[in-house]
Write a structure and sequence with these properties.
8-stranded mixed beta sheet
């Protein structure tokens, strides 16, 4: 049996995956859980890698794990390897058909996905050989999947300050959106705009702490020098938040595009009202993808078809039709 070379031991897919996950979490227990292995197994693999490269990749300060100088070099090299592999895959796919194959899309789970669901139906009816795969993901999962080439397109909110390296990516704006304050107070029901200090009288239902919109809300309240709302429940989707808010009379904040898709008369019957914050909280909904993806025929065709889809009936009009 042929003995593995030093390079094969270092750059095997499993070894790189284990190293990257530990470098991301900086926690053996958490990394092992995500990877679906035991902590001793992960520790053994990392020690094996360190023995192969001849240097410690991590060190501890108290209970906190840190990357060593060698670890930083290894991390940079690993990212470069993934970059080359992704570019190679993209170059190969650029020679493929524009009307067949898979388009993998990651949608931020806090986004109203009605328009994208309807476009998937439209696309299938016009081109059944092109298979659209939609995944509802967290912000962290979206970026991990983009970096690992597991999704071709992300549909997400921008700007996103958590993104440190935009160089490999480009974005294509879909719409501009606003965040609305959802409440049940009759004295504010006719207000088009509402001050931040008037939104914290009642408990809130919120997105999870690491979600984009929750981050935007916290930062904006901080900038307005108003205490952040007290959250009594957290949900990952706008439908869950609205349902909880309506049935418990708690407040929340939801994208205007989502509220457009709802029956305003039904909301008023439940004494549920929507107002814009002042100052307004704005953000964009956009496609985000690796630059080479735009050269792949089926991805380019997908984006062109989506643009044509919206030219026939715009995004907001499609949201308003068939209100729930």
């Amino acid at each position: 049996m042929k003995k593995k070379t030093k390079q094969e031991n270092i750059f095997s897919s499993k070894t790189l995956t284990y190293f990257l996950q530990l470098a991301d979490t900086m926690n053996y227990t958490q990394a092992a859980q995500i990877l679906g292995i035991t902590q001793p197994a992960l520790t053994q693999q990392i020690k094996k890698l360190e023995k192969t490269v001849g240097s410690p990749l991590f060190y501890s300060i108290g209970k906190k794990l840190r990357l060593s100088n060698s670890g930083h070099i290894m991390l940079n090299a690993t990212h470069k390897i993934y970059e080359i592999l992704n570019e190679t895959t993209d170059e190969i796919e650029q020679s493929t058909s524009a009307t067949s194959g898979d388009v993998n899309i990651g949608i931020l789970s806090s986004i109203e996905d009605k328009v994208f669901e309807n476009f998937a139906i439209h696309s299938y009816n016009n081109n059944p050989k092109l298979r659209i795969n939609i995944h509802m993901l967290t912000r962290k999962e979206i970026w991990e999947n983009l970096e690992n080439n597991k999704i071709d397109l992300a549909i997400m909110y921008l700007p996103d300050e958590s993104i440190k390296n935009w160089k490999p990516y480009e974005s294509k704006k879909i719409i501009s959106d606003n965040l609305l304050f959802i409440h049940h107070e009759d004295k504010f029901k006719d207000r088009e705009k509402i001050r931040f200090k008037d939104t914290i009288n009642n408990p809130w239902a919120s997105y999870p702490e690491d979600y984009y919109l929750n981050h935007i809300i916290r930062e904006t309240f901080k900038n307005q020098m108003v205490d952040a709302p007290k959250s009594v429940a957290r949900f990952t989707t706008p439908n869950q938040l609205l349902k909880f808010s309506m049935q418990t009379q708690s407040s929340t904040a939801l994208p205007e595009s989502f509220i457009m898709s709802k029956n305003s008369d039904k909301m008023k019957e439940c004494k549920t009202y929507a107002s814009r914050f002042t100052p307004n909280i704005k953000f964009d909904l956009a496609f985000v993808y690796r630059k080479n993806k735009g050269e792949i025929p089926r991805i380019s065709r997908f984006l062109e078809d989506f643009e044509e889809f919206l030219s026939e009936q715009d995004y907001f009009s499609r949201l308003k039709s068939d209100k729930q």
